[in-house]
Amino acid sequence: MRPTAFIVWLLYVLVESKWIHVKVCFSRILEFSTTYAAVHNFLKSA
Length: 46
Prior knowledge:
- This protein is an all-alpha fold and about 45 residues long.
- Helix content is about 95%, strand content about 0%.
- It contains one helix and no strands.
């Protein structure tokens, strides 16, 4: 493999893994916010 190809591949892998990480974080935040909203509504109605 040429060094340039290796660098491009490395960047691609980094971006891909970061993107997966971002998606996971985003889904966690979404999950948390929906749970928080549900708990908040429950406490308000209680």
